[in-house]
Design a protein that fits this description.
about 80 residues; 2 strands; two-stranded antiparallel ribbon; about 55% helix; alpha+beta; elongated
Length: about 80
């Protein structure tokens, strides 16, 4: 069995067990992938721009689909694609 070391998550501060080999590599800084992702988002903000872009595109798509559906009638969407 691999040797384990207690570590404290850099994001949520929860104590977790990590493989000593991973600690020696400079890994094992976070207790989970979600904590790693949250810390990276907080640090870089790279996902915020993507979320805003997707929201704008989604709002526009929904608007155009609603207009098209209104023009086609209540079951016009069935043959739209």
């Amino acid at each position: 069995m691999a040797s384990m070391t207690e570590r404290k998550c850099k994001y949520c501060l929860k104590v977790f067990l990590a493989r000593t080999a991973d600690v020696n590599r400079g890994w094992a800084k976070f207790c989970s992938k979600s904590c790693k992702a949250k810390e990276q988002e907080k640090r870089t903000g790279q996902n915020a721009a993507y979320k805003n872009m997707c929201k704008e595109l989604d709002d526009e798509r929904i608007y155009h689909e609603a207009c098209a559906a209104n023009e086609m009638g209540w079951d016009g969407h069935k043959d739209a694609y």
